Amino acid sequence: MQRVDYAQQSPQELKKLTELVGVMQASSIEEPIRDLVALRASQINGCAFCIDMHAKQAKIHGERELRLYHLAAWRESNLFAPRERAALAWTEIVTRLPEQGVPDDIYERVRTQLSEKEISDLTFVIVAINAWNRLNIGFRAVPGTGDAMYGLAKAGLE
After folding, report:
1. How confident is the model at residue 107, as a pLDDT?
2. Lower CB count within 10 Å: N or C terminus of the chain?
3. Which domain holds residue 102?
4. Cα(14)–Cα(6) distance, integer angstroms
């Protein structure tokens, strides 16, 4: 069954969400962490379109493939720096939001690696990717269909 084309039906809303992503590119969170966060949240949410897109973007941005393979098991991997681990922990807790809220111990762990501004900016990065995941899952966006538009073919991940 074909789903609604959200870009066609809600162009103003799409424009604002796209603008948020643009603002995040100039935030205090560096591109490699933004890439890891987008990919990890998309894995958690099961968004194949976003997993496909963000794996390709990360590769284009210089991310090592092995780290992409290890991302789902980042806690057990020795390939991630403490700052990246903090960002990934925050991504997981904010994406899954437990009923009782974010525990203080997790927040305190993240504060040891990121400033208040960075935590705030990171949270907006997480909010944005979760919004994209919900749109693309809800409307069944097909992985790879945005490759030409976003220049993702150069990632070499077919």
Report:
1. 97
2. N
3. 12-141
4. 8
